[in-house]
Amino acid sequence: MSRDTRGLRHAREVETHLGWLDSFTSAALGVLAVASGIYTYLGVRGLLDDGGALSLFAAVAYSAAVSTGIFVFWSYLMRLLPAMRTAATRMWLVLAMVVGSGAIVAMSSWLNAAALAGSAAVEQHLARTVQDYQASLERAHEITLQGQALGLDVGRTRQSFEDLSQQEAGGGLSGLAGRGAVFRVLTQKSDELGALEELIAAQEAPVAAAFAEGNAILSRMRALTVAPGPVEDRAVEFSEESVRLAGVITELRQLSVAPLVDRAARDLAQSVVLPRLDAGDAGGQAAQQATITSLLEVLAQRAETLQAAASEVLALEPAAEVVYTPISTADAVIRYARNFAPSWAGAIAIDLLPAVLVLIVAVAQAAIRAGRDPAEPEDAMTVAELRAAVLALREVEAAELSSPPAPTYRDEPPLPHPGREAAE
């Protein structure tokens, strides 16, 4: 058996298979197009807020247009692309297939993904928002606790001034025992610091209560992310809880005493009410003035230390501003596409699966042409074609035998020319 003959047999075998497959290919394309249209309809309905008849009609019209477009597009390519013989025509049709596939993804696939995983994507958005709120709440609480820790610095400073006042009462600083001018300066500053320390201690209970309330709201928000029922209804309740939680975080920021300690440290050395020197002689008054001057220097140093501690707390990175933004199912699927890769793959595959069929048919047609082109025309004829040719030949021969032969006039002279007779 020659190589051309084997190629012809292979081509005829592939043609037989293609003929059988072509009998239901259109039906398969129709099923895929309708399935894509159904999911597109569900995705469009999720985007439309209005539930009236007009929205229903718009969703049906859009999904019908998508189904029709998909069916017509792939039908064109499945018929035309495999029939192209030149590289240029095939390239242009492949480019058309790429552009059309992108258009199908843009108008249908993302809506299909929204229908497949839209609710789960919105729940993912709620869960991410809860994490952001939790981080913001914990950060605000941490900064507030850092401010509360300044109470220890304030207490140490107050205690140092109380100790100095006790020394001055015994005459250990100015040399004059009693409760004179130096003693009054020391008690003035210790009383100021004591009031600040009490204010800081009073903030502990509100801080703990606000943090506990924030955690309770977070627990309710976490429950809403996994609760049964339509995700749209849960998102509304989630939004209300997020507003309450934002208020709690703002309250925690306002409860921070770091700004108050910073202002108190600035005023510690600057706002000193100097009492009248009450020593009985000039030498005692000079000793009091020298002691007060030294105390003012100590006040400046303690104030600088306290202000530095408060500045460290104020320099901490504040809690991030978190605002819950409601999101549609389609937007959620796009934003969290990495978490829903299987849904995206299924949504795209249902639209672009016919591209594989187009390539298969193109390869099969190329194999048919490769099997037929090297053969002679008479070798490429099928049995039916050969039978038809034989019958046609027999009909021609029979027609020739049945018709009488044309008469011939060999002995008759040629007819004279009319013009010549007239001249004669």
Automatic annotation (TrEMBL):
Transmembrane regions: 20-42, 54-77, 89-111, 344-364
Name the keywords, alphabetized: Membrane, Transmembrane, Transmembrane helix
Compositional bias ranges of the Basic and acidic residues kind = 409-424
Keyword Transmembrane helix part of the UniProt annotation: yes
- Source organism's superkingdom? Bacteria
Q: Does the keyword Cytoplasm apply?
A: no
Region named Disordered: 399-424
Signal peptide positions are none
Name by which UniProt lists this protein: DUF4407 domain-containing protein
From which organism does this entry originate? Pontivivens ytuae
